[in-house]
Specification:
Order of helices and strands: EHEHHHHEEHEEEEEHH
Keywords: Hydrolase, Lipid degradation, Lipid metabolism
Number of domains: 1
Pfam family, one: Patatin
Number of helices: 8
Strand content: 5-15%
Largest sheet: 7 strands, mixed
Number of strands: 9
GO molecular function: triacylglycerol lipase activity
Protein name: triacylglycerol lipase
Structural class: alpha/beta
Shape: globular
Enzyme class: hydrolase
């Protein structure tokens, strides 16, 4: 946990990493937090890419069961094609936009402003930008689309936020740390506060991917493939359950 652990828990922040289709892990984490530790998202919440969407869903009280169902529908659609999510008939940006418009409350931008921090990468210079003020629901959704845009997966032309082109926040800061205590969440085994504990996760060999620590484990190599090309919906559901269970383990220790 980043920050002084002696601080009041009510001042805690939480940050969700970018992780592609592994974002369903974050849904499990968010479900456990809502049920057992709502104090963790009473202050500030941050995220990159899929983590930004999870953070927004948590802070705006999005229906997480509906979010899970929507993710599994996207997975089923992608698996119908040999190229998976890269198939030209699949427009992930449009699917994301439609889902967010449907599932987010109309005043989501008001709940998010000042509390939700979305990591984006500015296309012109590759610099990281954290945005936390949103004038409309559409602007909030546009920020999440920018944070989630990966070339080829999302198309060829990066989306814009307030007239500036951005792409996936994971390219510059995949796990933004906020001031004060920040509980970090990642579906990759590593040094994040909430993450899988692989059997070989005690290995000292690891690397940092734009602020997110990842250990060299066999399961992590598999997770990289899942992040890019989703497996069967049943496996995705088990990843969601693991996020829930890993969160309970973290809460039991703190």
């Amino acid at each position: 946990m980043a920050g002084n652990e002696a601080d009041d828990q009510e001042c805690m922040n939480i940050s969700f990493s970018g992780c592609g289709f592994l974002g369903i892990y974050h849904v499990g984490v968010a479900s456990a937090i809502k049920e057992y530790a709502p104090n963790l998202y009473m202050n500030k919440v941050a995220g990159a890419s899929a983590g930004a969407i999870a953070a927004c869903g948590l802070i705006s009280n999005m229906c997480l069961s509906q979010a899970t169902s929507d993710v599994l529908k996207i997975v089923a659609l992608a698996r119908q094609h040999q190229l998976g999510p890269l198939h030209p008939s699949i427009n992930l940006m449009n699917i994301l936009r439609t889902g967010l418009m449907k599932n987010l409350p109309d005043d989501a931008h008001k709940m998010a402003s000042g509390r939700l921090f979305i990591s984006m990468t500015r296309v012109s210079d590759g610099k990281n930008v954290l945005v936390s003020q949103f004038d409309t629901k559409e602007e909030l959704i546009q920020a999440m689309l920018c944070s989630s845009f990966i070339p080829l997966y999302g198309g060829t032309l990066p989306p814009t936020f307030r007239g500036v082109r951005y792409m996936d926040g994971g390219f510059s800061d995949n796990l933004p740390i906020l001031n004060g205590n920040t509980v970090t969440v990642s579906p990759f085994s590593g040094e994040s506060d909430i993450c899988p504990q692989d059997r070989d996760s005690q290995s000292f060999l690891s690397f940092d991917l734009t602020n997110m620590n990842i250990r060299f484990t066999s399961r992590n190599f598999y997770r990289f493939s899942v992040a890019l090309f989703p497996p069967h919906p049943e496996i995705m559901s088990s990843i969601c359950r693991q996020g829930f269970e890993d969160t309970l383990r973290f809460l039991a220790r703190h």
